[in-house]
Amino acid sequence: MFPFLLKSWPWYVTGPLVGLVAIGLLVVGNKPFGISANLRHMCAASFPGRVAFFQYDWRRAGLWNLVFIAGVVAGGFVGGVLLRSPDPVAITPQAHASLAALGIRDFSGLVPRELFNWRALLSVRGVVMMAGGGFLVGFGTSWAGGCTSGHGISGLADLQPASLIAVISFFAAGAAASFFLLPLLVPR
Amino acid sequence: MSAPPAAAPVTAPQRERLLGAYCCIGILFGVVLTKGELASWFRIQEALRFKGPYLYEVFASALVVAAPGFALLKRRRARSLAGEPIAIAPKVLGSGIRYVLGSLSFGLGWGLIGVCPGPLFALLGAGVSVMAVVCVAALAGTWVYGWLRPSLPH
Which of A18, A58, A168 to mutate to probe the B interface, most B CBs <10 Å? Predict the structure, then answer.
């Protein structure tokens, strides 16, 4: 393999490509770039119950998006397994020190293995973090009608005030969670 | 979430070809999320703790590309490859309360698990199998939102 393929990308490669993905979806089929709608489509497809929010033709509205997200899973395999970077994520020394002070030891891989593993689910901290965090992500993005991609990229690029409100809100809450909740949930 | 827009009528073979295109763009995005480290908890925490510019540089450069691109497509009244006019549906602002409260809930979860929905799926592919639990929890959160929707402010 060529070693340069395994290197992580700098921001000036990553960012413009994200922008091109959003433009590409519009050019191909007039589709709005967004991920969180898939959570709704999956609910509508598998267990809609009697909830009005899930009573719609998910194939017509969301099949393209589900195919897109299947591609994202495959792309995650390509980028995270086949082209796995041999180096740890190159966060700044300040970020490293800040997370080490929280009790993070293992900086290899894309996510800290000490937090994200199956055994962690046996502890209250692990359940709160993964099940609680996941629940809030699903609940919140559905309520706000978008996530970091739908509001943060598509909405902001289209200069929509609603998306600016959303982005400010989720960054503020994210910083608050990182500063005040995370220290309670990292095992020392 | 606003009501999903009705899809324009496309012929069957055309629709299948386009699904392949969405899948390819998805693969590209999955590679971008992993090689660009946007699916990394470390990168997200670095940004949320204001300890490095990476995520902000990515967002800014994505918008520098996407915003003029969107504006050009709209001004030219361009048509998509599927043949429909390209139109970006505006998000209904209303009181704006759903964007504040919804995004605050999302942000709290994001600050803990360091993944938003895109990276969640990319990490499943990257072999972080326990993300399946996060994924099921996110589906549960979505379902509960749908159930409570009539009584939540929007």
Answer: A18
